[in-house]
Design brief:
By secondary structure, the chain is an alpha+beta fold. Helices cover 50% and strands 22% of the residues. The chain is elongated and about 135 Å long. It starts with a helix and ends with a helix.
């Protein structure tokens, strides 16, 4: 088979040369379009299910949330195993699939099971899927630098402006906010006043829930013009809450301010985010979508940040705390430089040892063609150009050159033997 292949190549040199040129051009294009990252993604093929039920102990979360979900999710096809973790008010379930399973196929199978598993959970509890990223998907961390601005205001800017803008960038799975205070209205009830007016806490909660809503009415026509009636009932200030009628007593409404006090506050926090010991800060984490080009996503996010910065409050700006693009560029540049140096050194050694420029050229020309062709396979299998894959290519150069030298020496040996036979026949 090999003999026939060599014979065919020798008889069709132009066609083989043309194929090599086409392969080299395809490889160069693959190099330019290859996904670039600093490190390979070796994380497990998993889907995360997150369930929140605030105020409940870990044992209740385990019994009423985690256990029903785990038992229901274990029958999904191509699942290796299911892990779970219950904590105060939160439940995390990690469904680990086989490595050859498409991540989005896996997420759709989990969603199918969750649609039926919801009936097993307490009322009002809704499990949700985690972002379609991996453990190495945190590609950029940033904070909002706003001296003198309240942490609650900074968090509001992050949650309602910056986060939504950056999530539109192609390749971004999630923008996870951290730090600051999440704005909320806090109602403090006086038990003595509740007892005096004959009210319960459940009645007050139900009143607030009902009144914080909008409702649509019917449509009617007047003077050939259609009008749609609706009520606007969303709470927008402390005064709106204080004036809510909780109960009517002797035709006099009992307002919420009569049984308690209302104030603006921040949600309870389990920790703080400090920057270099200089104080608290607000920011976000850019989580890359599974299988995306990390270098391209970071560049797109930075370009979007420049656009978003124009709409930030006066004095506020982005402060990038962690940026993987620097590590990516340094790693790839180092490997590229090593590849070029190795190619030059190997070429010189081949020329010196063979001392025949045509033989040396036939071996040296294999190096760039083989390296370029290897990127075609990297793209075909979805492998990024990282420090490990490029190092493997660098180590393979020695094998490539060794094969070429062996073939050249073997050809010289057979040619010398044939030349000796021809000389004997002439004699």
């Amino acid at each position: 088979m090999i003999e026939k292949l060599i014979s065919f190549s020798l008889r069709n040199r132009f066609m083989i040369l043309l194929v090599a040129i086409m392969l080299f051009g395809w490889g160069i294009r693959s190099v330019r379009t290859s996904k670039v990252d600093a490190i390979p993604d070796l994380s497990e093929n998993q889907v995360i299910v997150f369930t929140e039920w605030m105020g409940r102990s870990p044992q209740i979360m385990e019994d009423q949330i985690t256990y029903p979900l785990v038992t229901n999710l274990q029958g999904i096809p191509k699942v290796k195993y299911v892990r779970a973790n219950s904590m105060f008010g939160m439940s995390f379930i990690y469904i680990i699939f086989e490595d050859n399973v498409d991540i989005y196929w896996a997420r759709s199978r989990v969603l199918e099971r969750l649609s039926s598993a919801t009936n097993l959970l307490p009322a009002g509890v809704s499990p949700q899927l985690g972002p379609d990223g991996t453990g190495v998907g945190h590609i950029l961390w940033y904070t909002l630098d706003a001296p003198g601005m309240d942490l609650g205001e900074q968090r509001a800017v992050q949650d309602w402006y910056v986060k939504f803008a950056l999530q539109n960038v192609s390749g971004v799975s999630e923008i996870a906010s951290f730090g600051g205070f999440q704005k909320e209205y806090e109602v403090t009830l006086d038990p003595n006043k509740l007892n005096y007016y004959g009210l319960t806490v459940a009645q007050v909660i139900n009143t607030i829930r009902i009144n914080n809503n909008e409702a649509g009415g019917r449509k009617f026509e007047l003077s050939d013009i259609g009008y749609i009636i609706k009520t606007t009932g969303y709470i927008k200030s402390i005064g709106d809450l204080e004036n809510l009628p909780v109960k009517t007593r002797q035709s006099i409404p009992v307002k919420l301010s009569d049984v308690g006090s209302v104030q603006l506050s921040g949600g309870s926090r389990l920790g703080i985010f400090d920057v270099n010991g200089e104080g608290e800060a607000v920011g976000g984490i850019v989580v890359m979508r599974y299988g995306e080009n990390a270098d391209a996503v970071i560049k797109n996010v930075k370009a979007k940040m420049e656009e978003v910065a124009k709409g930030l409050p006066k004095g506020m700006k982005f402060n990038i705390m962690y940026d993987r693009s620097g590590l990516i560029e340094e790693s790839i540049t180092s490997i590229k430089r090593t590849l070029i140096e190795e190619m030059i050194v190997v070429s010189l050694i081949v020329i010196i040892f063979l001392f025949h420029w045509r033989s040396a050229l036939s071996i040296i020309i294999q190096i760039p063609i083989t390296i370029a062709a290897s990127f075609i396979l990297l793209n075909a299998f979805g492998i990024s150009s990282n420090i490990m894959s490029l190092t493997g290519i660098a180590l393979a150069i020695g094998v490539i050159v060794d094969n070429g030298i062996i073939m050249a020496e073997n050809s010289y040996k057979h040619l010398a033997a044939r030349q000796a036979e021809l000389n004997r026949e002439k004699q």
